[in-house]
Amino acid sequence: MDQLHPSQKQRDAEAQKVWDAAAVVPDPEVPCVNVAELGILRNVEMIDGEAVAYVTPTYTGCPAVLAIELAIEVALREAGFEPRIERVISPAWTTDWISDEGREKLRAYGIAPPVAGSNSKLALFGETIVACPQCESENTEKLSEFGSTACKAQYRCKDCLEPFDYFKCI
Length: 170
Prior knowledge:
- This is Phenylacetic acid degradation protein.
- It holds the Pfam family FeS_assembly_P.
- Residues 124-168 form the PaaD zinc beta ribbon domain.
- There is one protein chain.
- By secondary structure, the chain is of the alpha/beta class.
- The protein contains five helices and seven strands, in the order ααββαβαβαβββ.
- It has helices spanning 13-23, 35-38, 65-78, 100-109, 121-124; strands at 41-47, 50-55, 82-87, 111-112, 140-144, 152-157, 163-167.
- The chain has a four-stranded mixed β-sheet. Strands 1-2-3 form a three-stranded mixed β-sheet.
- A hairpin with a 5-residue loop joins strand 6 and strand 7 (163-167).
- 35% of the residues are buried.
């Protein structure tokens, strides 16, 4: 499989229909974003009559990966395709793959999106400023390294006093 991010690919009409069917599947742990916006749907193509969807889990231990793969398979079947799901683990998923629309949807849902540049040492080791998704204050504090899922940390805004999840940089 080609290693380009889906936004960099050109698809023929049939592959675009496959993409459109698979892309709308919501993430089961963060249902405000779909698998395309989250960047875990890497690519699709038609191979010998099968609609092949390439999926990269957010991390290898993600408990939702099987549910995501099954949901994509169902969506493709319902769209009239014979599906096959291929899990791609290299290159590893990064929060940099979350689309701008996905980041805005996270914020509107009450989850602070990850800061851009996941390869930054500051982002990787938690020395980043996390703005509150409710009031946009940067006067926040980390309460726990883990939030509602392992890929999120729990924060609290010191101004509006609201707790919120922060989607960690990976």
